[in-house]
Predict the structure of DUF2971 domain-containing protein.
Amino acid sequence: MNFSMYSTKYTFSKSKLVLRKKTLMETLRLLKFRSLSNDVELGYIQDILKKNEFWCSKLWNLNDPMEGVFSTYRPEKVDEIFSEKNNTVICSFSGEETLSCPLMWGYYANGFKGVAIETEVKLDKNDNIINEDKNIGGKVIKVDYNNINFTRVNNLTVEKIMTRKLENWSHEDEYRFLKNAEEGLHQIGTVSKVYFGAPYHNIENKAEIKSASNNLQKYEDLKDELISSCENYDHSGGTISFKDCTIDYNGLIETKQILSLR
């Protein structure tokens, strides 16, 4: 993470000294893992790279059945909280360190036959609000992992309810984009890198394995098609680098540059 801090400003008046809030900016590099096994999944990834936007969904469409569970001693708050949750969309990302996590590649990138898309998000650390464009709106909040007793939790804000999970999920190092909006594509930072999983990269008989695996052949074809299609997109927002990503049995990561588009 990169940090930059601006000086605190003072404003003098006849009777008092006004202290303005110090602005601390943070640049987060977040990862979105996606499978690349068929033409439909190729289209999803192409939409992200072409439009610089990510799909945001409702809380109910996530993969943890305990998402959003809460209790309250004030029954009148239930409808209010439910309504606010229902009006909020979510997009889940992982911290940059998860690039070397085999579990993430296994769960969300089809066993290394997929991608990890890196987006750079500039936040105002005072309130976690995306600061790049006031029209984007939304917040990015790190998920709080703990073995919480859902039957005893009370008086939580909707924001906290939507950004907490059990410790079992902590290896995902999740960050959540929250916005009061409809489901659909939303801009979240600027896409800067696309990492391709490289299954069997260090295996001597990789060619033999590839020739025997229709799934691996399909992945390689889709990978080439994705890179080729991106060459026609508008990259005026910045450079996008494409890299192969390999993780060995010791958990060491190796990336190899394929192409850089401006």
